Inverse folding.
């Protein structure tokens, strides 16, 4: 009768196993360690989806006030879409117009910036700049109404520390549902901005809270910061 012998594991093979990164078994090769580990959700560099409608915006700083403004490029024609509330009030596309902040305005210097009379007039871009921007932005949003009825509006207003000329903070805002064609801009958002500004300057509402609220949805901004 022939006796079959098991393969002998040599001393050299044992040594090779001890030096291997992974475990070793007779007749099997070590795992391939040349390929990088697979990416995981949430790891650095992973893109995150834009916030859902109604979610607070993560706001970024713009370039701030400029000594001399130049016409800024706008999103490509037709790439921005208006959103509307249940009562037909217009909201901007958060991908095109998420809002941008004036880095010169902080909670600590309100008295010398946005709460100082005349401050916004010193940082507002001239019509020679905003005029061409408005025309281009109207094409971005596909706005086809009378240009005089659409307001080229700062999403985060200058009185709330919005950037003066960052394209992310400006959009052609179409008129409200009760607007009469040809009557010029009639923007109920202005009332919201004024109330928020007074609350911020009085210390009743924090600047960052007001900025986030109006950037997310100006129609609900007052309620979000606890104002009537």
């Amino acid at each position: 009768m022939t006796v079959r012998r098991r393969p002998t594991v040599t001393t050299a093979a044992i040594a090779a196993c001890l030096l291997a990164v992974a475990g070793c078994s007779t007749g099997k090769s070590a795992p391939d360690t040349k390929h990088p580990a697979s990416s995981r959700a949430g790891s650095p560099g992973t893109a995150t989806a834009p916030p859902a409608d109604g979610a607070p915006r993560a706001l970024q700083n713009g370039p701030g006030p400029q000594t001399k403004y130049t016409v800024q490029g706008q999103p490509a024609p037709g790439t921005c879409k208006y959103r509307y509330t249940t009562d037909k009030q217009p909201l901007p596309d958060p991908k095109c117009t998420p809002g941008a902040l004036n880095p010169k305005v902080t909670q600590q210097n309100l008295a010398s910036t946005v709460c100082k009379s005349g401050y916004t007039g010193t940082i507002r871009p001239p019509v020679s700049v905003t005029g061409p921007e408005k025309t281009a932005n109207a094409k971005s949003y596909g706005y086809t109404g009378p240009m005089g009825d659409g307001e080229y509006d700062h999403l985060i207003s200058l009185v709330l520390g919005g950037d003066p000329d960052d394209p992310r903070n400006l959009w052609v805002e179409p008129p409200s549902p009760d607007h009469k064609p040809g009557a010029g801009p009639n923007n109920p958002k202005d009332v919201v901005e004024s109330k928020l500004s007074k609350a911020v300057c009085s210390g009743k509402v924090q600047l960052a809270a007001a900025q986030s609220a109006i950037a997310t949805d100006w129609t609900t901004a007052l309620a979000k910061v606890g104002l009537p």
About this structure: Residues 140 and 158 are 22 Å apart (CA to CA). Residues 1-52 have pLDDT under 50 and may be disordered. Strands lie at 60-61, 83-84, 90-91, 100-101, 151-154, 170-173.
